[in-house]
């Protein structure tokens, strides 16, 4: 079992994840809340959200980015083009990044790594270019190295993420159709060299058919643990 060394990872349905480090840094990834059918009923976000990480510009990942950032006074981190859009909507504190770059905040270092997907922002009647999609490696001082893949297909550069950052625990999409399915996600976990996987981005809508059971079957005998939890539950 992956030792998260006091870090708590809470799945909030779809690709929305909250991370609390042992030192108390609070990170929310891809806030999709009000229209997310899998967001846990009655769940209240922590009062303190230091960082919001946005992997790309699709509505099922940034629908609640602006109101959450405003309410909690969070720094919002993502690709420069996506952050330009966020600023145009009134977000005051953004950190624009690009692929390969890292940025340090308190006890965490955020690194933007490649994802293969698309990133158009639906804004009224317009579709705005949101920059390239990314995944995030979150390196926690005296803690684990986490990887949130965002929306992506399987790609060989995940091996570079392994060699550069040595992630131990990965949050991987498994739903298929728009992202990797379970078979590809199992190969991704092996490429990454992680010891544990939290499956995300499945079951939210009928088209997302991949299941944690299929992922576990694909990883049988690999030594990689599938931490299949319900929305609102945590991995510690």
Keywords for this entry:
236 residues; globular; 20% helix; 7-stranded mixed sheet; alpha/beta
Please tell me about this protein's structure.
The chain is an alpha/beta fold and 236 residues long. The chain has a single domain (8-235), classed as 4-Layer Sandwich (Metallo-beta-lactamase, Chain A). Helices cover 20% and strands 29% of the residues. It is built from 6 helices and 16 strands. It is globular, with a radius of gyration of 16 Å. The protein starts with 7 loop residues before the first strand and ends with a strand. The mean pLDDT is 97.
Strand content: 25-35%
Number of domains: 1
- Using the coordinates above, name the CATH class: Alpha Beta
Give the neighbour order of strands across the main sheet.
6-5-4-3-2-1-16
Secondary-structure-based class equals: alpha/beta
Largest sheet: 7 strands, mixed
Number of strands: 16
Q: What's the helix-strand series?
A: EEEEHHEHEEEEEEEHEHEHEE
CATH superfamily: Ribonuclease Z/Hydroxyacylglutathione hydrolase-like
